[in-house]
């Protein structure tokens, strides 16, 4: 067995620019130590979220340790849930959506992930932000 | 159900959504993010473009294919919600359903939509049309296809005074009151379209 890969992070926004900007901030914090993907916009390139594109992002950020998804508004959450259900059965139970603000949640989750923490800890760190 | 009938159902649904896309977007601009009409139009145009493949399948598989297309093409929360509804119907319906089969399957598919949207009737969503339509459908009686469109239209009107607690409109709180829910309207349009095809049959 090789070294265990860090938990991956997926950022899902209605806006491609917001998703990319949040991903830039994560990269600056943790460099290449966590698998990362950002996705935003609908199939026509407008504002929205796209189930197929979210599935692609999960695949890109896939890690055997799992993937934590950060979303902005309601539709991003619904579409991310749908995307998880459509992923291969062997991966589904290792993909979680964090109930956390997109930018702060992504940075906190990635920081936790970069230390090699398991998925549950990554999620908990991001969700602590909601506890205030 | 033969291929021609399935084609007429798809055409009626797509025509209704495409013809009312601007109206749906205007409703969504009032209380949401103003993309419901465009999103639904994109989804149903994709269904229409694939109609000959879809209608060649048995009814349950055709419904699953419609659901998958809506999930992949709509690009907003209504994609997974309507996609879940169509896929739920596909799971629950036999190839040649009776009216009772259809009412039961709609009830089960609505439960799937509730789970997907974490929502119940009374929260200013598409469920506020689908639930009363299913109740009236299950109660049955004469000329059900003639009566259901009015049930759907009244149910959509009944969302006007409701306060949104789910989705983007919930951010508006009290300000969501006084506008028809766009998802309730699109559901009402689809019920009317489907019933018109059965009414002619």
From TrEMBL, chain A:
E.C. numbers: 2.7.1.121
GO terms under cellular component: membrane
Key words, A-Z: Kinase, Transferase
GO molecular function, one term: phosphoenolpyruvate-glycerone phosphotransferase activity
Record's keyword annotation contains tRNA processing: no
Assembly information from the UniProt record: Homodimer. The dihydroxyacetone kinase complex is composed of a homodimer of DhaM, a homodimer of DhaK and the subunit DhaL.
Name this protein carries in UniProt: phosphoenolpyruvate--glycerone phosphotransferase
Organism: Bradyrhizobium oligotrophicum S58
From TrEMBL, chain B:
PROSITE patterns found in the cross-reference section: DHAL
CC per GO annotation: cytosol
Keyword Manganese: no
Keywords: Kinase, Transferase
SMART domains in the record: Dak2
Gene3D superfamilies: 1.25.40.340
Domain DhaL span(s) in chain numbering: 4-196
GO biological process terms, semicolon-separated: glycerol catabolic process
Single GO MF annotation: glycerone kinase activity
Listed name of the protein: PTS-dependent dihydroxyacetone kinase, ADP-binding subunit DhaL
Organism, scientific name: Bradyrhizobium oligotrophicum S58
């Amino acid at each position: 067995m090789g070294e265990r890969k860090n938990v991956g992070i997926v950022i899902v926004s209605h806006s491609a620019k917001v998703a990319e900007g949040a991903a830039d901030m994560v990269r600056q914090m943790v460099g290449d130590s966590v698998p990362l993907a950002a996705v935003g916009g609908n199939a026509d390139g407008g504002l929205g979220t796209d189930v197929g594109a979210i599935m692609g992002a999960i695949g890109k950020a896939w890690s055997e340790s799992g993937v934590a998804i950060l979303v902005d508004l309601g539709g991003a959450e619904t579409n991310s849930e749908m995307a998880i259900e459509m992923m291969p059965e062997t991966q589904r139970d290792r993909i979680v959506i964090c109930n956390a603000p997109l930018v702060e949640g992504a940075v906190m989750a990635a920081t936790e992930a970069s230390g090699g923490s398991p998925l549950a800890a990554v999620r908990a760190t991001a969700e602590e932000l909601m506890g205030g | 159900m033969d291929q021609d009938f399935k084609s007429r159902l798809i055409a009626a649904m797509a025509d209704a959504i495409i013809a009312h896309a601007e109206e749906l977007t205007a409703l969504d601009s009032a209380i949401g993010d103003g993309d419901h009409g465009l999103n639904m139009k994109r989804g149903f145009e994709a269904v229409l473009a694939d109609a000959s493949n879809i209608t060649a399948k048995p009814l349950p598989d055709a419904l699953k294919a419609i659901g998958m297309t809506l999930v992949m093409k709509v690009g907003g929360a209504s994609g997974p919600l309507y996609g879940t509804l169509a896929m739920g119907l596909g799971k629950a319906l036999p190839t040649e359903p009776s009216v009772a089969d259809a009412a039961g399957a709609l009830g089960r598919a609505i439960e799937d939509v509730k789970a997907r949207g974490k929502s119940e009737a009374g929260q200013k969503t598409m469920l506020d049309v689908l639930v009363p339509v299913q109740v009236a459908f299950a109660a049955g009686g004469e000329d059900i296809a003639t009566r259901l469109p009015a049930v759907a239209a009244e149910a959509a009107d009944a969302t006007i005074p409701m306060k949104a607690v789910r989705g983007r409109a919930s951010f508006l709180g009290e300000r969501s009151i006084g506008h028809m829910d766009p998802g309730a309207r699109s559901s009402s349009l689809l019920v009317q379209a489907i019933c018109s095809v059965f009414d002619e049959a």
